[in-house]
Amino acid sequence: MTTTILLTGAAGTFGTAFTRYILTHHPDVNLRLLDHNEYGLYELQKHGIEGRVSYLLGDVRDRDRLERAMWKADAVVHAAAYKQVPSLEQNPREAVLTNIVGTSNVIEAAIDAGVKRNLLISSDKSTRPFNLYGSTKLAAERLWLNASAYTGGRGN
User: Fold this and answer.
1) pLDDT digits (tens, 9 = 90+) for 23-73
2) Which of 53, 73, 87, 153 could disulfide-pair with 48, CB 3.0 to 4.6 Å?
3) Which amino acids are annotated catalytic?
4) Residue 111, Cβ neighbours under 10 Å: how many?
5) Within the chain, where are the H helices?
6) pLDDT in tens, 91-114
7) Is the pLDDT of residue 156 over 50?
8) Cβ neighbour number for residue 153 with a 10 Å cutoff
9) Between the CA of residue 70 and those of 46, 106, 127, what are the distances in Å?
């Protein structure tokens, strides 16, 4: 049986490594790679396997795009986030919109699409945050953990 995984933040460090691992070790998995970095997606295409990978240009801030990307997905791995501490300190609104609102969009779209398996990639910096990045990742974790209260036991 084939499994379909949607990966947000596909062109990032984790996303690239995850994609290579899945393509190498799991021939029964199809990937939908979502990222707002078009060049990063292009670079990933060089390593993709025709028919097993869909390259989706989009942003976690766009709930409609997420809903389309999650259609009939079996799992979501949410790795999309802004991570550069100095940039986020200078651009706090962007950090909140991507790391918190974007995560909320992923959660809501996954619940509405009935996606059964969902994984958030976070950071050790959320443990005791002392900067905006850690704070936004802590908020994202709390949203993710709380989402189970809204699934009605559907396994999300």
Assistant:
1) 999 999 999 999 999 999 999 888 766 779 999 999 999 999 999 999 999
2) 53
3) 125
4) 18
5) 13-25, 38-45, 63-69, 85-90, 92-95, 102-113, 132-146
6) 999 999 999 999 999 999 999 999
7) no
8) 6
9) 24, 9, 29
